[in-house]
Amino acid sequence: MGGKREDYISWDEYFMGVAKLSGMRSKDPNTQVGACIVSSDHKILSMGYNGLPIGCSDDEYPWERDGGPLENKYLYTTHSELNAILNYRGGSLEGATIYVSLFPCNECAKAIIQSGIKRIVYDSDKYDGTPPVIASKRMLRSAGVVLQQYEHTGREIGITL
Fold it and tell me: For residue range 115-138, what is the model confidence (pLDDT) as tens digits?
């Protein structure tokens, strides 16, 4: 009788993979961000990606980064973290972990804190040092949320559809 398979993916690889796969649903031509919220017993509670609110056509709103406030995407899109929180219909997220492909901004940090999520595993921190991320980290740390950068294993994980 043989032993169990040894090359299975870790929980962090699994959930960050789900977050990144979720981000691939985003219609944003510049930035695709995904999030996956997980319970303390490793159950997926919710997922989200950055995009427009339900009922707002992806073809009728701007996706540009530049231009006036009403001509760019920023006033219209919802970030992946907020979408994942709003998509959850099961009750409390107290004590959950959120896996996200990009470190949360200050607005998402407020929603994460208010929802009771206690740990963030993030991949990219490319906006580190900007006011939204400085404010985000300050609030998250004050609220006792654990911040953990995802440790890449170098493993390539592919899905053929």
Answer: 999 999 999 999 999 999 999 999
Q: Which residues contact 145 (CB under 8 A, 6 or more apart)?
A: 112, 113, 117, 118, 119, 120
Amino acid at 156: E
Cβ neighbours, 10 Å, residue 138: 12
Q: Which residues are catalytic?
A: 81
Neighbours of 93 (CB within 10 A): 23
Residues 6+ apart with CB under 8 A from 114: none
Q: DSSP letter string over 74-127? A: TTT-B-HHHHHHHH--SS--TT-EEEEEE---HHHHHHHHHHT--EEEEEE-TT
Alpha carbon 22 to its chain centroid, in Å, reads 9
Model-wide pTM > 0.85: yes
